[in-house]
UniProtKB/TrEMBL annotation:
Cellular component annotations (GO), alphabetically ordered: plasma membrane
NCBIfam families to which the protein is assigned, alphabetical: ComEC_N-term
Residue ranges annotated for the ComEC/Rec2-related protein domain, each copy included: 57-161
Predominant subcellular localization, coarse grouping: membrane
Annotated membrane topology: Multi-pass membrane protein
Pfam family, one: Competence
Keywords from the named record: Cell membrane, Membrane, Transmembrane, Transmembrane helix
Transmembrane segments: 81-100, 112-134, 141-162
Organism: Hankyongella ginsenosidimutans
Designated name of the protein: ComEC/Rec2-related protein domain-containing protein
Superkingdom field: Bacteria
Keyword Cell membrane tagged: yes
Coiled-coil regions listed in the entry: none
Length: 165
């Protein structure tokens, strides 16, 4: 009877705690899996090959990439493009900034009466944070996101990008 209790406690205790763990990885697990699945299921591409590379670019999940594709990318020096880095975060933040700013400036009244640049910076920061969470929030990605947020905060404060002279 004692053995059975130990086994039951061992079998159900840690798994139950792990299932109820809370953190950023739990919040974005379903959207991240859905995004990767959608990119891999592209009917126009080679089954699993191009979709797996696209999913790796969006979510950072490199497991579904075939070995021969990863070898070819390593031999050509393109493997670093698959790891989510500062380049990816900056591109997402920059595209969000330009899209929101240009969209708001389509209306002349909004462009004259609203703080369009500040709104675009806020949207850019939200996009950078969302992409960081979607990509799995590894430490290098979080570091790149923090650097992007510092640049956005400096831009919001009115700092110039180049302050020589």
């Amino acid at each position: 009877m004692v053995r059975r209790r130990r086994r039951d406690r061992h079998r159900h205790g840690p798994n139950r705690r792990a299932a109820t763990a809370f953190g950023p990885h739990v919040l974005v697990a379903a959207p991240r899996g859905a995004a990767a699945k959608a990119w891999r299921a592209d009917p126009r591409s080679d089954p699993g090959c191009a979709g797996a590379v696209a999913a790796a670019l969006v979510t950072g999940e490199r497991a579904p990439i075939p070995a021969w594709v990863e070898t070819a990318m390593r031999n050509s020096g393109l493997t670093h493009l698959l790891s989510i880095s500062g380049l990816h975060i900056a591109v997402v933040a920059g595209l969000a900034f330009l899209t929101v700013r240009k969209t708001l400036l389509l209306n002349p009244w909004v462009g004259l009466h609203w703080p369009v640049k500040a709104i675009a910076i806020l949207a850019s920061a939200i996009a950078a944070l969302a992409y960081t969470l979607l990509s799995g929030a590894s430490w290098p990605t979080v570091r790149a996101c923090l650097a992007t947020l510092v640049v956005l905060l400096g831009t919001l404060a009115g700092r110039q990008a180049i302050s020589c002279g």
